[in-house]
Write a structure and sequence with these properties.
The chain is α+β, with helices and mostly antiparallel strands. The protein is 55% helix and 10% strand. The chain contains 7 helices and 4 strands. Helix 6 links the parallel strand 1 and strand 2.
């Protein structure tokens, strides 16, 4: 290991970050499998699972490659990590293709793909943690190195985002991250106990006209704004 990283508290560790991701993926996978077991195509659940995989798991891979792995220099085991990252990307792409209708399959095949991906993800996290631990001190979470916290996703995932539930220092970043995930013509509603005019102005200016804003409620105790992705 080139240099050294200070010991991390458990909440700042890669292991804790991986556990959070795996728990979120597992919950969405359980929802999908429960519907498939009833011989119904789990369209909503498949979209929810693939959206999380693309937004959070793939981002985790990118953040590890950008922020974490370079701290270990040119250790040979990193070649395995890079290869397994590529395999995970391929597995997520396969699930996303099924969700998008590009590779329609049977319910049995979908259930198998879902279970296999869960196993692959769990095995990857465990092996990566073990390999990196062998290089020195416990690996830091990517969020501790400057990446966006994964808890943002759960707080902004639905059609209504309560800004007061977000940490004040990161609320704007979290909302911006959510807006980037919107599809064209998709809408979300922002709610707060504070005037949202300054936030909407900033989002409108930074989005270069990509979003439309309409006030649904203007105080005095609550502010609700509908945001629509235009392009």
């Amino acid at each position: 290991m080139s240099g050294g990283t200070p010991a991390r508290q458990s909440g700042d560790s890669l292991t804790a970050e991986h556990a959070q991701l795996l728990a979120q993926v597992s919950a969405r996978a359980r929802d999908l499998l429960a519907v498939a077991a009833q011989s119904r195509w789990p369209e909503r659940e498949l979209r929810a699972l693939t959206a999380y995989l693309r937004a959070e798991v793939i981002r985790q891979i990118r953040d590890e490659e950008r922020l974490l792995l370079p701290t270990y220099g040119a250790a040979p085991v990193l070649a395995w990590v890079a290869r397994d990252h590529a395999r995970l990307r391929a597995a997520v792409d396969a699930m996303a293709g099924t969700a998008g209708g590009e590779r329609r399959c049977s319910l049995t095949r979908l259930a198998t793909m879902t279970r296999d991906l869960l196993t692959q993800l769990s095995d990857h996290f465990a092996t990566e943690e073990r390999l990196l631990a062998g290089l020195g001190t416990p690996a830091a979470a990517t969020a501790a190195l400057g990446a966006h916290p994964h808890r943002w996703y759960a707080l902004t995932e639905g059609p209504v985002v309560d800004l007061d539930a977000l940490p004040p220092a990161t609320a704007t970043e979290a909302v911006t991250d959510r807006l980037r995930r919107l599809r064209r013509d998709e809408e979300i509603e922002l709610r707060s106990g504070h005037d949202l005019n300054a936030l909407c102005w900033w989002l409108s200016a930074s989005g270069r006209g990509d979003y439309g804003f309409a006030y649904l409620r203007e105080g005095p105790d609550e502010w609700h704004v509908r945001v629509t992705r235009r392009r």
